[in-house]
C-alpha cells in the first residue's frame, strides 16, 4: 500500500464524509487525528467513565493501560461510536475526528466506523471462506471493483497472504488463533480506514502469535493511526509512542467509575511518571 497516496485519499474521504454530515467548517490541520475532550460515558444511570481528555496523534500507536474496570475499553469504543450499540449507553463531552464532532447531529455512526475500524479482543472471523471474510466489508461498502486485488492487498497488509494464498476458498475457522486475528485485521484494513482501534488483540494468543501481531502493528502504523487497549504493560512499552493510564475509584454514592490518570510519551510515562498512582501501577504496587 503506497503510504502517501492511500492514506492521503483515505484522509480526504474521511473529512468529506463527516463534513457532509455535520457542517462545513474546515478540519483542524494538526498532527492530531482524534481528540477527546471531557468525555463522560454512562450506561443507563451508571456514570462509568468521567472526564477523559486526550489527543491521538497521526501515524502513531497510542496505548491505553490500567486495571480491569477502569474504562479503557469503554473509552476505546467511544472513538468509533461502538457504544451506540449498547442499550442505555450515552457519551457526552466531545470526540472529534479531524476537528469534527463524531457525535454531532447528522453524523452517521456507520460512516464513522468505516473510517475508524476496530479489531476485537477475541478473533471473530465469519463462518465463511478466507476470501469472503476480507471481501465482506468491501462488498457492503460498494468497493467491488478489483475485488480480488483488494483482498490480496489487505491480506498482504496483515502479513497473512503468503500463508493463505493457496487456500482462499477454505473456511476462515480452520486458521490458527493468531492467523484468525490477522485475518480480522485484514478485514478491518480492507476498507481503507484511517484509524485502527485494537481492543486487547493479543490477549488470547500465545507469545509467538503475539510477537507477530506486534510486528504487524509496527508495520501498519506507517499507514494507519492505531489505538490499542492492553493489560500487558510490556506490550504497551514495546509498541506504543504514547500511553494513557486509567484507574478506577468509588464516589460518595458507592459507584465505581473509571478515569484517566495520566497521558504522556510512553518512554517518559514508564520511566518517570508524573503521577504517583501511575508509578504504583507500573511497579506492581497495585492493579
Automatic annotation (TrEMBL):
Q: Name one GO cellular component term.
A: membrane
InterPro entries, per the entry? AAA+_ATPase, ABC_transporter-like_ATP-bd, ABC_transporter-like_CS, P-loop_NTPase, PstB-like
- Residue stretches spanning the membrane: none
Cross-referenced Pfam families, in alphabetical order? ABC_tran
Q: Which UniProt keywords apply?
A: ATP-binding, Nucleotide-binding, Translocase, Transport
Q: Where is the ABC transporter domain?
A: 34-273
Recorded hits in SUPFAM superfamilies, A to Z, give: P-loop containing nucleoside triphosphate hydrolases
Q: Which GO terms describe its biological process?
A: phosphate ion transmembrane transport
Concerning SMART domains, the annotation shows: AAA (SM00382)
- Molecular function (Gene Ontology), one example: phosphate transmembrane transporter activity
Q: Which domain of life is it from?
A: Bacteria
Indicate what this protein is called per its UniProt record.
Answer: Phosphate ABC transporter ATP-binding protein
Task: Name its species.
Answer: Glycomyces buryatensis
Amino acid at each position: 500500500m503506497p503510504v502517501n497516496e492511500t492514506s492521503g485519499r483515505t484522509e480526504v474521504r474521511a473529512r468529506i464524509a463527516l463534513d457532509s454530515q455535520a457542517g462545513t467548517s474546515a478540519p483542524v490541520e494538526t498532527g492530531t487525528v482524534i481528540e477527546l475532550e471531557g468525555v463522560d460515558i454512562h450506561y443507563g444511570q451508571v456514570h462509568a467513565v468521567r472526564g477523559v481528555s486526550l489527543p491521538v496523534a497521526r501515524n502513531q500507536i497510542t496505548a491505553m493501560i490500567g486495571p480491569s474496570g477502569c474504562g479503557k475499553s469503554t473509552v476505546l469504543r467511544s472513538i468509533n461510536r461502538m457504544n451506540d450499540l449498547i442499550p442505555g449507553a450515552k457519551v457526552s463531552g466531545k470526540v472529534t475526528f479531524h476537528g469534527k464532532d463524531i457525535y454531532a447531529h447528522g453524523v452517521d455512526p456507520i460512516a464513522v466506523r468505516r473510517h475508524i475500524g476496530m479489531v476485537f479482543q477475541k478473533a471473530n472471523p465469519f463462518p465463511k471462506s478466507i476470501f469472503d471474510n476480507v471481501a465482506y466489508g468491501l462488498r457492503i461498502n460498494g468497493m467491488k471493483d478489483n475485488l480480488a486485488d483488494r483482498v490480496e492487498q489487505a491480506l498482504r497488509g496483515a502479513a497473512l497472504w503468503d500463508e493463505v494464498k493457496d487456500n482462499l476458498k477454505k473456511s476462515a475457522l480452520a486458521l490458527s488463533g493468531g492467523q484468525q486475528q490477522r485475518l480480522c485485521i485484514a478485514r478491518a484494513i480492507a476498507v481503507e480506514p484511517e484509524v485502527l482501534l485494537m481492543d486487547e488483540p493479543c490477549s488470547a494468543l500465545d507469545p509467538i502469535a503475539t510477537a507477530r501481531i506486534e510486528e504487524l502493528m509496527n508495520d501498519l502504523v506507517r499507514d494507519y493511526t492505531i489505538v490499542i487497549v492492553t493489560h500487558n504493560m510490556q506490550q504497551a512499552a514495546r509498541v506504543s509512542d504514547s500511553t494513557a493510564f486509567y484507574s478506577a475509584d468509588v464516589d460518595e454514592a458507592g459507584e465505581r467509575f473509571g478515569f484517566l490518570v495520566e497521558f504522556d510519551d510512553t518512554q517518559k510515562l514508564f520511566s518517570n511518571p508524573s503521577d504517583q498512582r501511575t508509578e504504583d501501577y507500573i511497579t506492581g504496587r497495585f492493579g
